Amino acid sequence: MKASIPIIETQTRAAIKAFQEEKLRALLLYLFEHSPFYQEHFRKNCINIEDIQTLDDLQKIPTIGKDDLQRENDAFRCVPKEAIVDYASTSGTLGTPVTFGLTEADLDRLAYNEAISLACAGIQKGDVVQLMTTIDRRFMAGLAYFLGIRKLRASIVRVGAGIPELQWDSIRLYEPKYLIAVPSFLLKMIEYAEKNGIDYRLSSVRGVVCIGETLRLQDFAPTLLAEKISEKWPEISLYSTYASTEMSTTFTECEYKQGGHHHPELIITEVLDDEGHRVSEGQCGELTITTLGVEGMPLLRFRTGDIVSMYEAPCACGRQTARVSPVLGRKQQMIKYKGTTLYPPALMDLLTNFNAIENYLIEINTNDILTDEILIKIGTRTPTEALRERIVNHFRAKLRVVPKIEFCDIALLEQQLYPLGSRKPMKIIDRRNKNLLGGTL
Q1: How many CB atoms lie within 10 A of CB 229?
Q2: Minimal CA–CA distance to 66: which of 335, 253, 304?
Q3: How would residue 417 be classed by pLDDT, with cut points 50, 70 and 90?
Q4: Model confidence over 250-264: pLDDT tens digits?
């Protein structure tokens, strides 16, 4: 039997809106009484919280961004330090990491969030779930998976990232039904299995909740990466999930795979254009969020930097809530290259089409005439001109433009991908304006 859907997520759009507006008014009062940052934000912008009664009224409040969190991190905390029971931090892929202090109530909320999100993918009581991501280094996602699986009363196998041999040993021993993994690592798992005589298609695994890399295009069709995994391992179902430390909320696909489901009891979402106006349904813009039920460091109208679309139509699974599209890219990482607008995920997906590519690093620079340049460093055991030509032709056919291609030593490139202390591969380096950025998308 499937896990039950929260009642609010099956209500009418009008009922959901009224529910969120009540939660919003409570949040505004909480921030007014407890948040040094928002007290000053309201004063500076002449905001009377009594004037904010509806979701539309939110537009009267200026948005905030990552720079505010970096500059005034501690001023966002609404509770005394002794109330903090766990510290998490962002990965720092777009700048200085930001710390979030979580209270006991925040951990309960995090567990609830992940439980209802993983339930979207079909995980339920009694299932065994193998966690193939880090749970340490202040990584909120790993902690959320652990707490959510536990709340679902499923079983957890905490293997951690990497090491295909250990992953397969654990699958053989504990027979998990689900994995939580970076999708490109599944290809390494398959490659290891094929080389070592493991019949992975007869394993216990039936589903994978995929993190960190895009599985769907904007029309929800599978990416090349998803197609490649499914062709090799058709017995498993791939579920895309999207979250961030700042949101403390997860959007996960259900079995119909038409976007990540919004949980109205946990978060208010807006999608804004460059001028800060809300875009129409199905149009791309920057996801801007307001967290609900967060005690330690709630956020009001926080610009995530992620470019998405939202869809309002009810889902066949029974949920009436909005659905978020795959992330097109990060606003700061948009590339204008030879007249074409690109985001790194499009480049990354095309590179998965080549078995000869062991690893890669995308560097974005500004040239002498102040336009964007793209260099893709590729680690391969067959650095031939024939391979280069195949890659060039593939980019030309799919994107109409061709980045510069440079073959590199696999081991040296691996060191650049995993700098000391990194929790995930840094596949993108943006050197424009002398800013060093990176991260998986």
Answers
A1: 24
A2: 304
A3: confident
A4: 999 999 999 999 999
